[in-house]
Write a structure and sequence with these properties.
With 609 residues, the chain is α+β, with helices and mostly antiparallel strands. The protein is built from 16 helices and 19 strands.
């Protein structure tokens, strides 16, 4: 070993600094966590100083080389290693402290630099754990996500060529599953990188695109409107003359052993038990045409009402009028064919009624909205004053906790829509809704988020765990249990990453922060946003269009989607976070999916405004 190498042989830390790789608003919450390697846990001191530096700047470190070879450059290799040079007394642009904490997720060092507000592009360094990934501080930081979302939607288009992504596919969609009658249903968007066109999972793209058109940088407006119109060509062909909205195209038969009524919902996620069908020859009447599932799904029906009502106020007049009339047609059908009153349906019914009324329809009155809201409010757990634990969450009619992979906070989101509508005729019910929203956050969502060091909000309340001796369930009080991540053992065999759950929590927190003037809700929304952007236990960003380090994304049919959200963290048996970080591919955490993305667009719309 040569002399220089021998002198330089010191212990090298494998710890990492995790920070949001998207960046921060100047006035926003800014968090950093040191993720210690196993070797470092016992070696690192309780307090560690960190410095914020401009990109390319860093404190000098001791390098034992001949003085004649020192240059104006700060050592050309292994630049993050070695002790600080005591002669360098600079403290960068900002000096902070990481504090050691012991948690149920393990040992971490955490710090905050919210009072550093200067716009720019930076890194954070420590003597003991090197550098964080770069990050920006910018008032318009969320515009990167608006742009990324538009790119994602375009890449998911069905029925048209997307150069560099996919050829023209499924031009011959579709035939009725009842009698094989052809129906022109080409277009729309695929979902999760495959070729199925779920109505329940893609209709809400209309809302997110409308939010971009209305509230984001004007440069994005026309692109958002164009994308809305593209999606609507498909949606408008998926409603019949009577007003029934069909469920999907290309889902295919159910997997072996699954029954529609028993298995289809999969924790309120229509579709995960369907096999799916692939590509076609793009020629009609050749026998490979995909089928339209004509099953009546109240979520699809009410989502259609809600999103067409929203689109009617954003699209050009001719298109807007058609959206409005179809929304009313679908609403009339839903009234004639009432749902079974499960909590999910009540929430979607309230949201549909609010948006239809907001669009100017006479089919819905404030009293109608109030009646639906009161039925939904009856589903909120009010707690037990004699027992500690969680309360404020929503339940099903049988008392089990309301849970959903796709619509985890839909009851709260629908109540917030009613609050935002602010109809004077139902002021009293609006006040009840505000209290219910605060109860949900203060006594459930944010209260349980204190159980982990990153403030990750819970997956849901479970009344009857299937394998409590194998899988960890935390006591929620009142004979119920809670997990931060989905229960891996469930009757519907669906271990699913929680990115969509987290992003809808981000959405309702941001919306409530704005409507109720509660900064702590907005602050926690940004904390969740940072978790998904890299401030997490593996220092990986789960949105591939931004950031620097990501898991390997999985897409069954198309690996070329340029910008996408991944399914995200799945829990271990002990309810600690798990995300596949090897080159192995597993759909449960790495599959790309549109649902987290449109929830996040809703969230940043309120943070952005």
């Amino acid at each position: 070993m040569n002399l220089i190498a021998q002198k330089q042989k010191t212990y090298v830390s494998e710890s990492q600094l995790a920070v949001s790789q998207l960046g921060f608003r100047p006035q926003g919450t800014k968090l950093i966590t040191l993720l210690p390697s196993k070797a470092d846990v016992k070696k690192l001191p309780d307090k560690i100083t960190f410095y914020i530096q401009s990109i390319g700047s860093r404190k000098k470190r001791i390098k034992d080389i001949p003085a004649a070879y020192n240059s104006v450059y700060n050592w050309p290799y292994e630049i993050s290693k070695g002790k600080y040079d005591p002669k360098d007394t600079t403290e960068g642009l900002y000096k902070g402290t990481l504090h050691k904490i012991e948690t149920r997720w393990g040992t971490f060092w955490q710090g905050e630099f919210s009072d550093f507000t200067t716009p720019g592009v930076y890194q954070i360094e420590t003597e003991l754990a090197g550098f964080s990934t770069p990050f920006a501080i910018d008032e318009k930081i969320y515009e990167r996500l608006f742009r990324s979302y538009l790119l994602y939607n375009q890449a998911q288009r069905s029925g048209s060529e997307v150069p560099g992504v996919r050829p023209v596919e499924t031009l011959d969609d579709a035939v009725m599953d009842t009698d094989g009658t052809p129906r022109p249903c080409s277009g729309g968007w695929f979902d999760a990188g495959d070729t199925r066109k779920w109505m329940s999972q893609t209709l809400t793209h209309e809302e997110a695109l409308a939010q971009i058109a209305r509230f984001a940088n004007p440069a994005f407006k026309q692109a958002a409107i164009d994308e809305m119109e593209y999606g609507n060509k498909y949606f408008h062909n998926m409603i019949n003359e009577e007003g029934q909205v069909y469920e999907d195209v290309g889902a295919g038969p159910l997997r072996a052993g699954m029954k529609y009524d028993e298995s289809w919902w999969c924790e309120n996620h229509a579709g995960c038990v369907a096999k799916g069908t692939g590509f076609t020859d793009n020629l009609p009447d050749t026998g490979d045409e995909r089928e339209i599932r004509t099953n009546y799904n109240p979520v699809c029906q009410l989502q259609f009402v809600r999103n067409q009502a929203i689109a009617s106020k954003v699209l050009p007049p001719v298109d807007g009028i058609k959206c409005f009339l179809l929304a009313e047609r679908a609403w009339k059908y839903s009234v004639k064919h009432p749902h079974d009153n499960r909590t999910l349906f009540l929430a979607h019914e309230l949201a549909a009624a609010v948006e239809l009324y907001r669009a100017g329809s006479k089919l819905v009155t404030p009293e109608d909205i109030e009646n639906i809201a009161l039925r939904l409010l009856e589903r909120q757990n009010k707690g037990n004053k004699l027992e500690k634990g969680l309360s404020g969450y929503f339940v099903e009619a049988d008392g089990d906790g309301y849970r959903s992979v796709v619509w985890s906070a839909e009851p709260v989101l629908s109540l917030l829509r009613m609050i935002e509508l602010d109809a004077p005729e139902i002021a009293g019910t609006n006040e009840k809704a505000k209290q219910a929203v605060r109860n949900f956050f203060d006594n459930y969502l944010l209260k349980d988020a204190e159980s982990n060091p990153f403030g990750v909000t819970p997956w849901g309340i479970i009344a009857n765990p299937l394998e409590p001796d194998i899988e960890t369930y935390r006591d929620a009080g009142q004979g119920k249990f809670v997990r931060t991540f989905i229960q891996l053992f469930n009757s519907q065999q669906m271990p699913h990453g929680g990115n969509a759950v987290i992003q809808q929590h981000t959405y309702v927190l941001a919306m409530a922060g704005a409507l109720l003037n509660e900064k702590r809700y907005s602050d926690h929304a940004e904390k969740l946003l940072q978790w998904t952007m890299g401030h997490n236990t593996v220092s990986l960003c789960t949105f591939t269009g931004v950031g620097f380090r990501h898991p390997v994304p999985a897409s069954y049919m198309n690996y070329l989607i340029p910008d996408a959200a991944l399914n995200g963290f799945l829990g271990n048996l002990d309810d600690t976070p798990y995300l596949e970080t090897s080159n192995a591919i597993e759909w449960s955490t790495q599959e790309t999916w549109g649902v987290p993305f449109y929830h996040l667009i809703g969230a940043i719309t309120y943070l952005y405004k």
